[in-house]
Amino acid sequence: MTDYSTDISVSARYSELSGLLATMTKHAASLGVADADALRLQLVVEELFMNTINHGHQGETEHKVGIALFLNDNVLTLRYEDNAPPFDTSAIRTGNAAPDTLGGLGLGLIHGMGKSLCYRRIDQCNVTEIAF
Question: What's residue 73's pLDDT?
Answer without folding.
Answer: 86
